[in-house]
TrEMBL record:
It comes from the Eukaryota. Residues 29-291 form the Domain of unknown function at the cortex domain. It comes from Neohortaea acidophila. InterPro entries: Duc1. Residues 1-27 are annotated as: Disordered. Residues 18-27 have a biased composition (Basic and acidic residues). This is Domain of unknown function at the cortex 1 domain-containing protein.
């Protein structure tokens, strides 16, 4: 179906949208966590829009991750509202980025390695009008590798990791115990390509230098079958797009926008990204974008305030200690 026809159908569906959520967006805050499994108790808080990387490790990989969100209004409250990342010419329109570097602890087959979203509870009763049309737009014009079952008891939206990731850089083999290279600094955008012997890997697999051509290349099952995430080799990844606006809680697709906040409830308030093996269900890495409100938000704000006070006290003690040492000298 042509793009203009899809837009018209989407707008028609959205005109039947229910009335806005009674709460205003400023009563909500985001909290991003990441960890080596689905279990939230294994997660750490991600310091969005900073150069502080979150370290993640399990039996499959060790990784370092950074998240950038344009117009971030969330916790920790010390996080900046934006990042120099979005000032780069390649990312002027992008709304967020999940970037990470990882080194496999064992060879990981890429055929069934997926990246995407899933939920551990049904969301079919929370889907906005126009959802099916929106997904058709995404699949036809943005990522043809995506598959989705939004009406399952445990709904999902996945694509092959190697065709979903917008940036992929293959690095050198690393000695066990070597400090893992972090995802790029805020003003150092990941470039498609390779470093050292990683260039040989790209050449052996005839990987295109262009990221869009590489993504299309890995839509082929045969091409993914021949590729392995090698044990001890460094890989760097960046996933970004201009479609999810976390500042305004909206999904913005070509031709129309959906206000997501009105479809949030106590169960459906976390957007989960996962890198895993779809067949074995082995989870390599998980990122949760949690929307907090009400009592949950108040508890989080109190914890954040306590942490800020502890950090201020620690800095004051360090300063006083340094001053005393200077006086002695």
């Amino acid at each position: 179906m042509a793009m203009d026809a899809l837009k018209a159908k989407a707008k028609s569906s959205l005109s039947r949208d229910p009335s806005p959520h009674p709460d205003e967006p400023d009563k909500y805050r985001l909290l991003v966590t990441a960890g080596p499994s689905y279990d939230p108790s294994t997660h750490q808080i991600v310091h969005v829009n900073t150069d502080t990387a979150t370290s993640i490790e399990n039996e499959f990989i060790r990784a370092k991750l950074k998240v950038r969100i344009r117009g971030y209004r969330g916790l920790p409250s010390s996080c900046p509202s934006s990042s120099p990342y979005f000032e780069n010419a390649a990312h002027l329109k992008d709304q967020y980025s999940i970037a990470f570097s990882f080194v496999p602890k064992k060879d990981l087959p890429s055929l069934d390695a997926i990246w995407g979203n899933d939920f551990d509870h049904p969301v079919r009763d929370r889907l906005p009008p126009g959802f099916n049309t929106a997904f058709r737009i995404v699949k036809e014009f943005i990522d043809p590798g995506l598959e989705c079952d939004a009406y399952a008891d445990e709904p999902w939206l996945y694509g092959p990791a190697l065709s979903c990731w917008f940036g992929l850089r293959i690095g050198e083999k690393m000695e066990p115990g070597t400090e893992l290279l972090e995802a790029p600094e805020a003003n150092d955008v990941l470039k498609e390509g390779a470093d050292g012997s990683g260039a040989d890997i790209r050449q052996q697999h005839a990987l295109p230098d262009n990221n869009e051509k590489r993504r299309k290349f890995f839509l082929s099952k045969a091409h993914r079958e021949g590729f392995t995430f090698e044990k001890d080799r460094l890989y760097q990844v960046d996933f970004f797009n201009p479609y999810l606006d976390f500042g305004n809680f909206a999904l913005k697709l070509p031709g129309f926008s959906i206000k997501v906040i009105k479809y949030i409830d106590e169960k459906s308030h976390t957007l989960r990204y996962v890198f895993k093996n779809r067949v074995t269900e082995e989870v390599y890495l998980c990122v949760n974008l949690n929307l907090l409100w009400g009592d949950q938000l108040q508890r989080a704000l109190k914890a954040d305030e306590t942490q800020l006070q502890e950090l201020a006290a620690a800095k004051l003690n360090d300063h006083n200690g340094t001053t005393k040492n200077d006086d002695v000298d």
